[in-house]
């Protein structure tokens, strides 16, 4: 019996749900690494509906589905009949007749929830505007669990905390694990007010964060979400993590980034023992295997 049908927001999951998915991801890790084969999704089809660009989320969902024996069909905004004037609701109603699960990314906050209301099959939110990115959060938590620690982790969220949907989802989940959260950002890119009211966090300078934390979670300044280019220019390049900045870091500090990166982490850091972001992107595969198998199981119930 599956625990949930759709995955729209991290708020839809309890801590027990998250722990369950993370241990399920552990069991899928050898399949993601191609050490073992398991074709439990044979005959099932995933539709990737990406109305915004993606490399990691779309491709790791596709990899996860194919390694578990399933098939994938992809559609981007340029290819969809939405360009002819079809509504998102009609698109979802139709696609949900063809496939077993839909992964959707859209520029509008709330689009995935709206899709779920119009779908016969499970909907997974792959990012809705500056809203949420719950599957990224699950892989972030999985990375913390495997590469550092999750319960009581000291973590600094760095960069664009206003528009980064990965941060909006992650910060809520971290509260469940009693994390000590530090915020490092320009004034204009602080967390949205409603999240600030909910989250216990302390604002610090980047140098203080680096010497204190177990994990740095660095984010890109989300240029595409700024209503005004001039406002973006004021904060572009605010932080760059360099080797010299890491001189006072804890031995076992890990540096995470949901990627893509622009200039927030210098390329010289990639070879340091702290850099974990490419491994983090790989963990998207076992985590998304866990999510897909869970929601598709729902359909079978
Ligand atoms: N982290 C993330 O969502 O990456 P993509 O935009 O490449 O999917």
Describe the structure.
This protein folds into two domains: 10-132 and 284-300, Rossmann fold (3-Layer(aba) Sandwich), CATH 3.40.50; 134-281, Rossmann fold (3-Layer(aba) Sandwich), CATH 3.40.50.1370. Helices cover 39% and strands 15% of the residues. The protein is built from eleven helices and nine strands. Strand 6 (180-184), helix 7 and strand 7 form a beta-alpha-beta unit. The chain is globular and about 55 Å long. The N and C termini lie close together (6 Å).
So what's the overall shape? globular
- Helices and strands, in order, run as HEHEHEHEHEHEHEHEHEHH
The main β sheet shows up as: 5 strands, parallel
CATH superfamily caption of the largest domain: Aspartate/ornithine carbamoyltransferase
Distance between the termini: 6 Å
Mean pLDDT: 95
CATH class of the largest domain reads: Alpha Beta
What is the strand arrangement across the widest sheet?
Answer: 7-6-5-8-9
In the predicted model, the low-confidence regions spanning at least 5 consecutive residues are none
Radius of gyration: 19 Å
Helix content: 25-40%
Q: What is the tally of beta strands?
A: 9
**Mind telling me which CATH architecture of the largest domain this is?**
3-Layer(aba) Sandwich
CATH topology (level 3) name of the largest domain: Rossmann fold
Structure classification: alpha/beta
Into which percentage range does the β-strand content fall? 5-15%
| Unique bound compounds | phosphoric acid mono(formamide)ester
Question: How large is the count of helical segments?
Answer: 11
Question: What number of structural domains do the residues give?
Answer: 2
């Amino acid at each position: 019996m599956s625990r949930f049908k759709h995955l729209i927001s991290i708020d839809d999951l309890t801590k027990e749900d998250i722990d369950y998915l993370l241990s399920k991801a552990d069991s899928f890790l050898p399949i993601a690494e191609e050490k073992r084969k398991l074709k439990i999704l044979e005959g099932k089809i995933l539709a990737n509906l990406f109305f915004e660009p993606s490399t990691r989320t779309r491709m790791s969902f596709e990899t996860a589905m194919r390694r578990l024996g399933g098939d994938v069909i992809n559609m981007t905004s340029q290819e969809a009949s939405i360009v002819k004037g079809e509504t998102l609701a009609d698109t979802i109603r139709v696609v949900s007749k063809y496939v077993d699960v839909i992964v959707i990314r859209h520029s509008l906050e709330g689009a995935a929830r709206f899709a779920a209301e119009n779908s016969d099959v499970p909907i997974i939110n792959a990012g809705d505007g500056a809203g949420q990115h719950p599957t990224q959060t699950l892989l972030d938590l999985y990375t913390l669990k495997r590469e550092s620690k999750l319960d009581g982790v000291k973590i600094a969220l760095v960069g664009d905390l206003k528009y980064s949907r990965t941060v909006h989802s992650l910060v809520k989940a971290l509260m469940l694990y009693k994390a000590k959260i530090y915020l490092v950002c320009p004034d204009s890119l602080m967390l949205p007010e409603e999240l600030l009211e909910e989250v216990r966090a302390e604002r610090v300078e980047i140098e203080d964060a680096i010497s204190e934390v177990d994990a740095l979670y660095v984010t890109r300044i989300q240029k595409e979400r700024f209503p005004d280019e001039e406002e973006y220019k004021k904060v572009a390049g605010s932080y760059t993590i360099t080797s010299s900045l890491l001189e006072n870091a804890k031995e076992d500090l890990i540096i995470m980034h949901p990627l893509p990166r622009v200039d927030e982490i210098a390329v010289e850091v990639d070879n340091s023992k702290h850099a974990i972001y490419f491994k983090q992107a790989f963990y998207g595969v076992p985590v998304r295997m866990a999510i897909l198998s869970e929601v598709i199981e729902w359909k079978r119930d």
